[in-house]
Structures are given as structure tokens and as C-alpha cells.
Amino acid sequence: MNVRRLIPTTAVAGAVALGIVSLSACAGTSDAADKGSSGKLDVVASFYPMQYLAEQIGGGHVAVDTLTKPGVEPHDLELKPKQIGELGEADVILYLKGIQPAVDDAIAQAGVKNTVDAATLTTLEAHGDEVGHEHGTEEHAGEEHGAEEAGHEGHDHGSEAGTDPHIWLDPVKYAEVAKGVGAALEKADPAHAADYKKNTDALVKKLGALNTEFETGLKNTATKTFITTHSAFGYLAERYGLEQEGITGIDPESEPSPARIKELQDIAKKDKVSTVFFETLASDKTAKTLAGDTGLTTDVLDPLEGITDKSKGDDYIEVMQSNLAALKKALGAK
Q: Which of helix, strand or coil describes residue 31?
């Protein structure tokens, strides 16, 4: 059974309710249009990658609340009508359309003026089940293939049908999103625009350094192929010339077919794959079964949808560095 279905709906709703109530209590005390020097901009982030941007760029000028609490799988989040109404009291809403259908619907109803969809701040592409997909004007060293057999019968991910929303796992695309978020905060709270600009520049610089670490660390490897339970790493694979082979597709709820498992076993032998990766918020059962059948090891490749006590790092940069270390080990980096 997939662990994503083991999270009680009432527990999720309760966690969200606590966050929303806390948010609304402070949101009612100020307005984005007339912030004082001591007032803070109330920002609601849909899940951790958006929360990290808001905190890093907003600094001391923002009060950030996230709809998805630590340990909750983002795709499964549901909101009650009352919570949707309270969402409208935020000064700024930051989300990524396509990851959380229930949140997308709630935000559309909230009617908050300063609503930022991160999917519009960079270029989304199709990964996982798109064969021969054209990647627009960007040049990418890698080529995504092989997850078409997994099927996508669950969520309609992405702002357009078939697009992959996991843009934050590519530091370059994440930096593009950061610039857009910075501009949005400047517009929402012009009194602190200079600080938002400074913080945005600092974050973009950190993401640039992270990109360099990945480029250098993955330049020379024994193999370019890695197997992961959830096809969340398409952008990362393209950026660094790797090939992601997902046990399931973009949709983490889907189950692999016997044919797909057999294909992965053949790929593992052909491409000298050593490791099957699983993630922190999902069951490792399928990964361990595949690994056991093929004599491979297992390790964590974190899609960074949330930070928990199981995360190998305290924030985005640290967890991404842990991901890099795991990839270097699995791919035989020289």
C-alpha cells in the first residue's frame, strides 16, 4: 500500500486549520497597501519550495505560513470551505500550479490581488511519459525517457496538460522563479523593495553556486542513468546530462506495471546502475523490491516537497547537497 494513502484526511485538515487560523489572526492586523515600518507582509506559501523562497527573500519583513505542514505529502492536501475563505485574508499567496489540485482551486477562489504562480515564472516542460518531446529553445544535455509505461491516472500535474511541475529541483529554474517572487514582493510591499531585491540577489547567487557544484560533481561519472520511485527529477536530469528512469511517472500515486519492472531490470544491467532511489515522504517498498530482485542498493533522493526530521539537511540548499552526494556515489563520480 502506498504510504501516501495512510495520512488521515482529518489530520491533514487539522494541521492546515491550525496554520490558517494562525495566519488569519495576524493577517487581519495589517494590509499590504499601507504597511507600517513595524508591520509584516503576510505570505501564504502552498508547500516547502515556495515557503523557502518567501522566507529567504522576504527576510524580517514577512510572516510566512505554509499550507502543507512537515510530513504531509503535498499532493494529498485538501482544504475545507472555511479555510478557503480565510485564505483570502493573506497579503500575498505564493504557489505552484499543478502540484496540489485542491490548493489550486482554493487559491482561484480566494481572489487575493498579489497571487503568484511559480509555474509562470519559468518554462515548464513535459517529462516522464512524453516521447520525443521538444524542449523549446533551451539546450539540454540529457534526454528524458522510459516512464511512459507507468501511466498517469491520478493528478493532472502542471499548468498545461502533460507538463512537469518539479521546477525547483533544477537550481537554474529555481533561480528564475526566485527572481519573479522577489519582484512580486517588491510590488506588494514597495516600502521594503530594496531589501527584497538585495535578498533575491543573494539567493540567486547561492543557487548559482549550487548549480556549479552539481555541474562539477556530475561531469564525469561511470553511468548517467539513475532509477527513482517518483519521476520528479526530469529537470535535474536534463540540466546535468543524466537520464532519469522512474519506477512510476510524474504522478506519485501510479503503480508500475510488470512490464515496466522488467524493463528497469534490463536497464539496470545495461547501464550499470547500482542504486534505486526512494524519497522521504513515500514508501520505499517498491524500490526495495526492485533493488532486491536486481542486486542493487537503495538510497534517498529527496524531491524536497517538505522538510522533516528524516530530511538529510535543514533547508533547500543542504538537502540538495545531500542529493548531489547520493547521485555522485550512485553514478560513480570520478
A: coil
